[in-house]
Amino acid sequence: MVQVIWPDSGLVEVSDRGLAYGDGLFETIRVDRGRPFLLERHLQRLLEDAGRLTIPLDRAALEAAMQEAIERLAPADAACVLKVILTRGSGGRGYRIPDTTRPRLIFSVHPMPPVPDAGGVVVSTSSVPLVVHPAMAGMKSLERMQQVLASRELQPDEFERIMPDSDGNLLEGTRTNLLLQSGDVWITPPRESLAVAGVMRAELLDCLQQQGRQTEQRAITRYDLDADRLQGLWLTNSVTGIVAVRSLDGVELPVSSHLATIAPHGFFTGSSA
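^ thats the sequence. predicted structure below, dont judge the formating
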């Protein structure tokens, strides 16, 4: 049976493996006037990745806890960010997984971040390359030190830092996934190269493919950015929505409204979930 920790219910035990080793996962969910955005995808990712980590998590218990969290924590008249952390629970000292654990779900609620500029945002490439272990690819685990280091580079006028691979190809932002349009082709780096395979990314890919758009999953190269066929570069995140990039490393990029004619209105920040 999973243990649920509420913001007002006290402290997490110091023996918790999430605190000690990053042994766990998390989700951040946009909730607009009591309506969670992309909830099914958040639930599915949490359950799948819990299985990858062999953290026992019952879907019915998770759904019940999530519904209670929304009713208990989310304001009825405003948007917010609901964060849920899943840890393996307490396990004493040492990396080895205990024979018996009781997982914990830890809930908290936070204000929505500022709405990004509709005309596009400024981003830069991080000096911190993204290194993804195959066993952890795409998983929104608690271990996020690469993103913490890259986020330290953010300047006041920047929205995001983009993390490259060892060859300088662009993979993902510290908190966003990437989508680029080159001609009629939509390009996003593949799941196996990502630290976090976002739920917004997955939803948007499905949307494009259902409409018969041509998609490719590969790293974004500097040639893609310099080519005359570049139509636009977007950042995707389930909280901030779809955000156009107007400047990368000081170079102006085209800002297209094409994606707004393809993706549902609710995919964009500030619209109803």
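The mean pLDDT is 93.
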